[in-house]
Amino acid sequence: MIITKPAVKIQQCNLTIFSTRFLVSDLLEHNFYQIDRLGSAGNETSGYQRLLNPARAKKFAEYLIQAARENEDAFLPTSIFLATDKNISYDEKTNTISFDISEVGPFSVVDGQHRIEGLKIAAQEVPAFRNFQISANIAVNLDKISQMCHFLIVNSTQKSVDKAIEQEIHSELTKMVDLENTPTLPKWIERQVRKGEDRDALVIARYLNNKMDSPWYKKIQMANEQRTNRNTINQGSFVSSIKKFILSANNPLSVELDTERRNIKLKNYWRAISNILNKEKLLENSALYKTIGFDLFNQITPTVFTQLNVNGNFEVNTIKTLLREAFQELDPSYNEVANTNFWKIGSGASGLNQSAIRKYATELNKSINIARSRNIDTVL
Predict the structure, then answer these.
(1) Rounded to a whole number, what is the largest CA-CA distance in the chain?
(2) Is residue 27 a contact partner of residue 153, using CB atoms and an 8 Å limit?
(3) What separation, in Å, do the N-terminal and C-terminal C-alpha atoms of the chain show?
(4) Which are the contacts of 277, defined by CB distance < 8 A and separation ≥ 6?
(5) Is 54 strand, coil or helix?
(6) In the chain, what are the domain boundaries?
(7) pTM recorded for the entire structure
(8) Would the pLDDT of 43 be above 50?
(9) What is the spatial distance between Cα 3 and Cα 99, in angstroms, rounded to a whole number?
């Protein structure tokens, strides 16, 4: 079926956009649009859209229906952003576009999925909404990676996007950036993509979250994953902490080229921590497995792994010995951190802010170095 619509052609550098209008009935046509969502549960995918929030779409639909019934004042001034990797015929004399949706579609929804879903709900409940007009911008000749970039640009420069979704897209772009042509990205986004930290941190997060012998098994709420009772930390916080402390220049783990070996080292490290502070696994949902605990013990990894590198032994028992010795050397004002009860929800750890976490990390770093120095003196 050929669709013809009035349109204005907009040229923004190399990007061609047609600004037009559709009826809701157009959106309801078979294969008119698709939403390329990011996979859930940490699965790798080249999608980019966030998970649909049904409540948000329903709330918008309720507004439309109520406004229309009470005073015929329902309106939606903001446009939706669609994209296709095909070209669309444009008649400059009549200022119209013409296309066959079976050839150029389905359009990818870059921005506006909740508005579209709300309009569909409204049209199902009130058929008159099938004739409701909406403004739309259609980008043409835009391949998948370019659509992903534009989604990131729109949502990073105009409104916030969930940190986990942003990390996933940065990771995906890192894989593609040297293999495919990409649009010009804002400098801060390009720097993140080029450094590849989101990609590397996500490799660690997925590993720790998916290994059954990992203390973090299924505790991380990954991007577009529905929250479960087991989740204690979200991907955004988890990955941000890895980037800040594990992949920092002063951390020996940041120069470990064997990603599998690095993953195992970190898994053993957290197994050692859990064996000491949660030996009976009684604190499944403790502060130890929240951002508080993750940040604190990540901050001491440069010191821990510098010491472990001396003998090249990264087994769980070796790490446990190192930590136990360090706990014994702690200043009495901070030695509660070595007590399981400290990590119970509602106890001491739950009240820590970032400033306090840094103080505990500083004391732990000191005690690790003191313990190691005494061991060396004993040997000599």
Answers:
(1) 91
(2) no
(3) 86
(4) 283, 288, 338, 340, 343
(5) helix
(6) 2-161, 196-379
(7) 0.57
(8) no
(9) 5
